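Notebook, p. 212. Picked up where the previous page left off. The plan for this session was modest: take the two constructs that came back from the sequencing core last week, fold each one, and keep the raw output in the notebook itself so nobody has to go hunting through shared drives later. Recording the first one now, exactly as returned: residue sequence, then the structure token string.
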Amino acid sequence: MATLLRGVLRPLCAFPGSPGPPAGVPFRAVSHGAGLLYPEHIPTSLLQKVLLAAGSAGMALYDPYRHDMVAVLGETTGRRTLKVLRDQMKRDPEGAQILQERPRISLSTLDMGKLRSLPEGSFGCAYLHFLDVNVASGHGMTVCTEDFIRCWNTRVSPDTRAPTRFVDDEELAYVIQRYREIHDMLHTLLGMPTNILGEIVVKWFEAVQTGLPMCVLSALFGPIRLNAQSLQLLISELIPWAVENGRRAPCVLNVYYERRWEQPLQALRQELGITEPPLRVEGLV
């Protein structure tokens, strides 16, 4: 059994330190080698996926800083949910265009000059402010989620996303990659910082929106690390707000954020049915 596990998990040995493909490279249904559907794809059997899911779940709970393990957990447990999300995108004109064009979000694809020229109050200006604050301060978190699991002194950027590896469908692989890459946009829309409380609130919103098992587990187990005051605020005010907004908003994967930079932030929130948070969570952990 130990030999089998070593064989199954061997591809992960290079995962934490191995570079992924350039973030600006789109997923395409072309051959990338024997059995490979996209760059960095690692084909796996059902048994291997089960073992990967169990192993990555245990490791992520043991060491919350292993964002690579949480990414593996999301990829090996979310296939059915990813199909639902993909179908939602196909039924929506804007979502279908995203699936067709496969835009990527990274420092190499973002026009920082354009973002800096946008007026105060625009979505692009708010997103740039979010990046400036978090890249400069290096905020991170200590909760099991593949989004922004970082040490407090680690700088963050749109390029700090794990590449998809274990999804055996090129289109679904793009869906989960897109989900990861719009995470910062959701922080901007929800007005949530990247401290532990803000990340948990975003995870509750994402869990309701996507139904991905990894999001649900993160939302449920993340609060374990909160102090009593923050836990009370989370349960009494922030979770109900996140759940209500997650249910009311249309699928956030159907928004072509890169083409909404000039739109006023409040107008985009109104379009998506997202209300202001009930309280500010900066400084609360």
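Okay, moving on. Second construct, recorded in the same format:
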Amino acid sequence: MSDLAGSLPAAAAGDKSSLKLGFLGIGIMGFPMAQNLIKAGYNVTVWNRTKSKCDPLISLGAIYKSTPGEVAASCDVTFAMLSDPQSAVEVACGKNGAASGLSSGKGYVDVSTVDGETSQLISQHIKATGALFLEAPVSGSKKPAEDGQLIFLAAGDKSLYDSVAPYLDIMGKSKFYLGDVGNGAAMKLVVNMVMGSMMASFSEGLLLSEKVGLDPNVLIKVISQGAISAPMYSMKGPSMIQSVYPTAFPLKHQQKDMRLALGLAESVSQSTPIAAAANELYKVAKSQGLSDQDFSAVIESLKGKLQQ
């Protein structure tokens, strides 16, 4: 990793013109993350299945390549933010995937949320090219991504982690190095499992308070003043009361993470009955056509039961 180790710290210190960063997956999260790198003055090359989503970034100075492999071949470090494990593997390891353009001296940082087994598979393909691999799934949704306030849960090659730290700091507010590949994925799944269960319980509380004649807006204020206060409640509660769910984190992705977390728990024989029950509510919400709504739309899965 001599080339990478030698060039990235120097670029981070101020020589941005010679460093080339790649970004694969320009969606709800990938777009603002790549945009923040561009605004910070870095040369960014982008790819997305739907090219039109890259157009605003191209107008800001990004370069577009037609395959992930071309992006990786032309860049020192390539970031990837894909929607699910299947997409992450396909973009990294499939035909014309990133691995086809990687070589010694390059780095690949997968910031997608996947299971540990998938991350290990991607890591093996990347390392086989001579490149370095880091998994770094993020905690945070659309607004934190826009504001550069994400939390990176990194694992893998420590030297690559140290080299890309300045870019993680542009896109996020904090970062954790968790050791071997798979640990970042596991941490992210545990965090999102807790989040999904919290949202399901919060939904029950909002509906119950209203049904017994209380003002759910006041419930939100009460919760915000106590030990169980969480920014998520005050951010999403008011719109949930109005049955409006602007997408920051799609419900289908929350359910995917619940499923993966339950699989992780099963693999180590850890009982997770609360998360399992919450997962069923997200599945019901998906069946109601709410997959692309924000995950707070899980409240809709409870309305029929409580309002009959």
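Notes on construct two before I forget. The two ends are 63 Å apart (CA to CA).
Flagging for discussion at group meeting.
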